[in-house]
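Anyone opening a protein record will find just a pair of labelled lines. A complete record is shown below as an example.
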Amino acid sequence: MVARDCKGFRFLVRSWEIAMGDGNYDRTLREFCIPDYILVPGSEVRSVSHVPACPVIVFINTKSGGQLGGELLVSYSTLLNRNQVFELGKNAPDKVLQKLYATLETLKHNGDNFAAEIQNRLRIIVAGGDGTASWLLGVVSDLKLPQPPPIATVPLGTGNNLPFAFGWGKKNPTTDLQSVETFLNHVKAAKEMKIDSWHIIMRMKAPKEGSCDPIAPLELPHAMHTFNRVSSTDKLNLKGYHTYRGGFWNYFSMGMDAQVSYAFHSERKLHPEKFKNQLYNQSAYLKLGCTQGWFFGSLFQSSLRNIAQLAKVKIMKKGQWEDLHIPRSIKSIVCLNLPSFSGGLNPWGTPNRKKSIYRDLTLPYVDDGLFEVVGFRDAWHGLVLLAPKGHGTRLAQVGHVGFVIIPVVFFFS
């Protein structure tokens, strides 16, 4: 089951009206820098006269984008206070933000108005792929901060759908000081926009004898926001079921597309040294799509089943669950929260409101409380997205969907 978190989370939408940097790095530092007494607990509190216009905390995944992450780490550390730039993998983002906000709250309690302004104006920059950006969203979600800082994304992955959807582009960036300064100015000028957060509830019937708890859970990509078992006192818990909860912000897919995506994630984790640039990653994804049968299912996996054979799909309309008809040819279903998919493509397209079949469908938005359910027959069907008005098979536009798979039940909302 997928459910929406009505709070939403704030992303920064790139504005093209910016004040360009003039090459004076000291001035740039002045507008984005956070002093050490806020970043390093126990530091001497100093009086600060200038409040930065856009204080930032920067998280960089050096494993993303080949060697670009390491180069970005050097550039940001040169322009900013080194203590506000963090390398993911060496620094857990939840611990960094917990420590920062604890310090800010303490200083505010002691009457530090500067700390209050830093908290009000704080923005996060995350450099990495979609999984890294979603990881940060999950961290901010779990911390339940009173005022979650908006997030800007540096496209440093394979598809970069999150950055693209919010105007930051999809190509890996240049890493020199001038380019980083320009990006910082874009962050300062950017507008805030909320993005829906979707919850996934997975229920499995408990065995009559024994327990499935000793079975190690699957390791999921960060973009999936790892499933956790809900407590016995949680209202989501049902007697006779094991219930798990997770979430997503980009999209959730089931079927052949998900199989290829997971194969790509697993291969990259086993051989990270091979995935050094965006072009290689995309070609590796294409190759896996072929070997997994996504292009030539009849040749590689003649027994490949369609979604209708794997699951019964239900959607909620006007508070009531009803069956969703899935054509027998559909082998993959994608639940989209973004208008960007597979490196900038839009599977939903623009529904023609004059056609009765599309009369109730609207354009996709990231903050409308709805996600789009799209089906694909195979990868060849997906190639229609390259056409100007190409789209997948539009199945539904809803706020709740359920997949009933024996013996597992997924609910999305």
Observations:
- The first helix runs from residue 25 to 32.
- The CA atoms of residues 375 and 386 lie 16 Å apart.
- The chain has two domains: 2-8+15-192, 250-293+303-405.
- Confidence is low (pLDDT under 50) at residues 1-7, 18-25, 298-303.
